[in-house]
């Protein structure tokens, strides 16, 4: 009995202290302290200068292909409108390819020369050659057969030579009337890697077996003609 009385007295003496202790170190308070500790720890462990990136709502874009041309050419936009309609209403794969190529950048719509056009349409003169790009003249060609060609653009001399030979230079809206499903056509493209810039791509010029074109100041005798370029000067690539 005496022990119980002592316990009650002690409880009354230390009640204010116990109350404040349990108030400070309650489970909810422990959670708050632990969260703050973790945040401080994360701040200390973060490397200097590390920053996040601001993404638009929805995260990163996984579809990066073009859905419209970058060009502001109103005639090109009208063609896109026409071929969007044809793709939707016909389901033709030919029209889908034309639409996709109309979206492409200038680098991906390389010109096709008259000589290549004749070469690729040999034995297919009755069909319409379709090029989503320009048709350019080639002075090395003397005889031009009668060809029906559809292109975004023709150089003056190329157009004159095709029409003089009895051929036709068509636009894409005319092609849509003649061949709405792409029937009786030959789809062609120009050489994409024939650009001057592409010649400089590849292993460094001067490395053995490299055929990369160097960026040289001049083509004279004194410019990149010594070691690595002649057998008499060490080695020749």
Automatic annotation (TrEMBL):
The keyword Transcription does not apply. GO terms for molecular function: mRNA binding; structural constituent of ribosome. Residues 210-220, 227-237 have a biased composition (Basic residues). GO terms for biological process: translation. Residues 201-237 are annotated as: Disordered. The keyword Ribosomal protein applies. One of its GO terms (cellular component) is cytosolic large ribosomal subunit. Keywords: Ribonucleoprotein, Ribosomal protein. Residues 52-237 form the Large ribosomal subunit protein uL15/eL18 domain. InterPro entries: Ribosomal_eL18, Ribosomal_uL15/eL18, Ribosomal_uL15/eL18_sf. Belongs to the eukaryotic ribosomal protein eL18 family. This is Large ribosomal subunit protein uL15/eL18 domain-containing protein. It comes from Canavalia gladiata (Sword bean). The lineage of its organism: Eukaryota, Viridiplantae, Streptophyta, Embryophyta, Tracheophyta.
């Amino acid at each position: 009995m005496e022990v119980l009385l002592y316990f009650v007295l002690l409880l009354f003496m230390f009640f204010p202290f116990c109350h404040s202790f349990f108030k400070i170190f309650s489970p909810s308070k422990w959670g708050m302290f632990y969260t703050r500790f973790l945040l401080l720890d994360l701040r200390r462990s973060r490397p200097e200068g590390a920053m996040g990136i601001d993404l638009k709502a929805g995260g990163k874009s996984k579809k990066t292909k073009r859905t419209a041309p970058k060009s502001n050419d109103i005639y090109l936009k009208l063609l896109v409108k026409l071929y969007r309609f044809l793709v939707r209403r016909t389901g033709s794969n030919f029209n889908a390819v034309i639409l996709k190529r109309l979206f492409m950048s200038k680098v991906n719509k390389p010109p096709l020369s008259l000589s290549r056009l004749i070469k690729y349409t040999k034995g297919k003169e009755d069909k319409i050659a379709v090029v989503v790009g320009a048709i350019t003249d080639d002075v090395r060609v003397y005889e031009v057969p009668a060809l029906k060609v559809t292109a975004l653009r023709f150089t003056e001399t190329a157009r004159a030579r095709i029409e003089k030979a009895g051929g036709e230079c068509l636009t894409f809206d005319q092609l849509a009337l003649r061949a709405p499903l792409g029937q009786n056509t030959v789809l062609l493209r120009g050489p994409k890697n024939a650009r001057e810039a592409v010649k400089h791509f590849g292993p460094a010029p001067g490395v053995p077996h490299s055929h990369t074109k160097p960026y040289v100041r001049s083509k004279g005798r004194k410019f990149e003609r010594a070691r690595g370029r002649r057998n008499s000067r060490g080695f020749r690539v």
